[in-house]
Amino acid sequence: MTSSKKWTEADLAGALHDVSNALTVLLGWAEEASAVDASPEAIRYALSVIADEARRARNLARRTIGGSAEMESDALDGVVDRVVSALSVEAHKRGLRIERQGKAPEASAEGSAVAQIAVNLLLNAMAYSPRGGAVRIRTSETEDDVSVDVEDDGPGVPAERRDSIFEGDSTRVGGTGVGLRHARDLARSLGGDLMLLISPRSGASFRLTWPKIPPAPVSFASVVPPPTLSVRAGSLLLGGTRVLVVEDDPAVTGLLEVALEARGAMVTLASSVEEVFAAAGDQDAILVDLSPIAGNVEQAVAMLRSKSPRARFIVTTGSVDSVPDVLFGARVVRKPFEVGEIVTAIAEAD
Q: How many folded domains does the chain comprise?
C-alpha cells in the first residue's frame, strides 16, 4: 500500500505548519481544562475541543503520509463557529477579539479542509494584530460558491508584497511564510481558492472561496454525544476477548491497556521480539506495531500464529509502506488512531 504522491520539502513544511496550528489549540484548551478554578462544564467543553482538534491533527498526519483521511460535507457556519470557539483561548491570551460576522445557512463545504485553512488564516491574522484589536471572520454564499473572509487590524500587506504573499516569504519575526502558500495550495487542490483582498481598513483581508455542495445531512453522531468511558466500559464490548498488544511506545501501550481492559478485554503486552516469544497463551486478537519486531517479522509472526492459530492480526502503523507478505490479509489501522478504531477492529475479529 504505497502512495503515488511525491512529497516535497514545501509539502512537508506545510503539513508541519498545520499540525503546529492544531497543537497550539490543543495546548491552549489543555491549560484551560487544568485550571484550578475550572468548572466541570468548562472542563467537559475544553475536552470536546481538544478531541476535535486532535482528530483534525490526525487527519493532517494521515494526509501527509498518504493514508486516507475523513472528507465530509459539513455546514459551513458550523465549521467556522467551531473554529472560532477553538481559537478563543489563543485570542484571549493575545488580548484580541474574534468577531464572527455573516451567515451562510444553506452552504456546506468539505469541513476538515475549510477548518484547516480558517485556523491558518485566523492565527496569521492574530500574529499581525495589535493587542486590544479584533480579527473578523465572515461567511457568505452565492448560488454556486461559499466564501470565508478573514480580516485583521494589523498593518496590512504592502503593495510591493501583494504579488508574492503566497510564494512563501514572511516579514514577521519568526515567520516562515509557509502557512498562506500551503493554505492556497490546499484550497486549489480541492476546487477552491484563496486570495488577498484590497481592504478598506488598514489591515489585511483574505477570502477563501469554495464550490457549494449539497447541504450536509444531520447525522446521528452530530446530535448524540459519544458515550463516556464509564458507559462504554459498562457495556463490556470486548468481554473476555484475549488481546496481545505488540507495541514499544509506553504511552500507546498504557492507553491501550487501560482502554481495552475497561471494555472487558484480557490484555497481554509485548514490547520486543523476546517478549513476543515469551507471551503465553492462545489469543483471540493480536494488535501489532511492526517496530518492536522489525528485525525478525517473519519469525515473530510465525511464532504468534503457532500459539494462536485462530487469532485475527491487526497491524497498527503510521507508514505508507506495504504490509509484509507474512501479514497479508491483516486488518490495518493507521496511526494516529482513536481507541474506537481499535475496539471496532478487535470486535469485528471475534
A: 2
What is the residue-averaged pLDDT of the chain? Answer: 79
> 237 with 342, same domain?
yes
Q: Is 156 exposed, middle or buried (0-12, 13-18, 19+ CB in 10 A)?
A: middle
Under 8 Å between Cβ of 59 and 326 = no
Indicate if 180 and 264 belong to the same structural domain: no
Last residue of a domain, one of 155, 180, 211: 211
Tell me which amino acid residue 35 is.
A
Decide: 115 and 52 in contact? Cβ < 8 Å: no
Q: Which triple of cell numbers denotes residue 343? A: 475496539
Domain carrying residue 112: 68-211
Same domain, 132 and 178: yes
- Residue corresponding to grid cell 498562506: 180
User: Strand, coil or helix: what is 103?
Assistant: coil
Cβ burial, residue 314 (10 Å; 0-12/13-18/19+):
buried
Task: Report which DSSP code applies to 215.
Answer: P
Examine the domain organization and report whether 166 and 286 are in the same domain: no
Domain termination site, one of 211, 237, 265 = 211
In this prediction, residue 341 has a pLDDT band, given cuts at 50, 70 and 90, of confident
In a domain, 202, yes or no: yes
Segment 114-149, tens digit of pLDDT:
888 998 899 989 998 999 999 999 999 988 888 999
Question: How many Å apart are CA 302 and CA 273, to the nearest integer?
Answer: 12
User: Within this chain, do residues 97 and 141 fall inside the same structural domain, yes or no?
Assistant: yes
Reduced DSSP (H G I as helix, E B as strand, rest coil) percent helix, strand, coil of the chain, to 5: 45, 20, 35
Residue 341's CATH number: 3.40.50.2300
**What would the grid cell of residue 2 be?**
504505497
What is the pTM (predicted TM-score) of this model? 0.57
CATH number of the domain that residue 170 is part of: 3.30.565.10
Cα 168 to chain centroid, rounded: 24
Contact 246, 270 (CB under 8 A): yes
Long-range contacts of 32-37 (CB under 8 A, 24+ apart): 32/89
CA distances (Å), origin 150, targets 79, 137, 195, 206, 239: 14, 5, 11, 5, 50
Residue 134, beta-bridge partner list: 97
